[in-house]
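Why show two proteins at once? Because comparison is the fastest way to build intuition. When a single record is shown, students tend to memorize it. When two are placed side by side, the eye starts asking what differs. So, the first record is below.
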Amino acid sequence: ERGPGRRGERERSEEGPAERGPGAAFHMFVLMEDLLDKLKLLSYEEEALRCHNMRPLSRHYFALPTNPGEQFFMFCTLAAWLITKAGRPFEQPQEYDDPNAVISNVLSELRSF
């Protein structure tokens, strides 16, 4: 049998935004703002975006699904830049690379950390 702690954890993970409270629907926006602050501390605009001629992220860029292809490429570009910044050589993905191969490479590199 499951202990009382495990059951409570499982029930919370299966709850929708309405069951978690009124602020749960906005949690993704808070996470995106935190991510953007951390990227700015790492000078992502100067180091990652300028060399790829990309626009800076908006405060809610990844929180709202506006253009999945563009958002995916931006995610992969930032992931590759962060891996390189961490001291590992990582080839920058191209816009028309196979998404499955790109994600597989990113995950493989992160697992090796």
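Second record. Ask yourself what differs from the first in the token line.
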Amino acid sequence: AVAGSTVELGCSARGDPAPQVQWHKEHGDLPWGRHEVDREHTLHLYAVTSADAGAYVCTAQSQLGTAAATTFLHV
């Protein structure tokens, strides 16, 4: 990603019952005041900086279990 741009990281999780979906950064916190997660579980990162680079993990959890996927952001 180019510094200063907006990045969208998708996460698709389905099930019955519908799983709870959460995002976190593997080493550190999500950028304070510069991120949001929409209804489709997409993580939006605004005005990215080099400090935002790293691994982001989407975790889906329900009564049936937990699944996680990791994506890497390079700035």
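One difference worth noting in the second protein: The chain has one domain: 7-73.
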